[in-house]
Amino acid sequence: MWWYGILAVGLLGVVVLAVWGWCHWPGCRLRRRTRMLEQARRMFHLQREYLEWRFLELASQSGKPRGLEWVDCEFDNAVRFGRDRETGELRAFVGVTIRFRAVEGGGMEDVPAVGNLRAATAVFHYDAHSKKWSTYGRALFNVNPDQAIDFFHHESETAE
């Protein structure tokens, strides 16, 4: 009768391996990624007002571009989502229009183009564990969100 115990342990092992294998099957991973993207999109829209404020705060403190002060930043409604090819981290790319003014004594006071509006893309990062978006205040100048994903194709891919 001792062989019943061995048979039960063996069957349990087979079931555990089957479930583990199924969860690592590409279809299961794809469903998980799709659910995570849907959740991340919802969270981005819920946190968007704060994220825009935080982006402007951090970007204006960065000292870039040198000699200019961030005056205003208008965010586009559209959002493009990308994924880091190596880590799988989600990123959101939002087109922005930025207005600067020259910092007194910064050497840019006499440049007529200082007041021109500048196109850029704001970059946001998603932490899947905390389910929160954040930003470092990084702006990619002279590219729209699609171009930003294409430009960084070696590290990012479209997540849609």
Describe the structure.
The protein is an alpha+beta fold. The chain has one domain. The chain has three helices and six strands. Strands 1, 2, 3, 4, 5 and 6 form a six-stranded antiparallel β-sheet that branches. The longest helix is centred in the N-terminal third of the chain and has 36 residues, at 26-61. The protein starts with a helix and ends with a strand.
At a glance:
About 40% of the residues lie in helices and about 30% in strands. It is an alpha+beta fold.
Counting helices, strands and paired strands, the structural category is: alpha+beta
* Whole-number mean pLDDT: 80
**What general form does the structure show?**
elongated
Helical residues, percent = 40-55%
Q: What's the multimeric state?
A: single chain
The portion of residues forming beta strands comes to: 25-35%
Number of helices: 3
- Mind telling me the C-alpha Rg? 23 Å
Number of separate domains: 1
Q: Please give the largest β-sheet.
A: 6 strands, antiparallel
CA-CA gap between termini: 56 Å
- The number of E-state strands comes to 6
Write the H/E string, N to C.
HHEEEEEHE
Question: What ranges have pLDDT less than 50 throughout 5 or more consecutive residues?
Answer: none
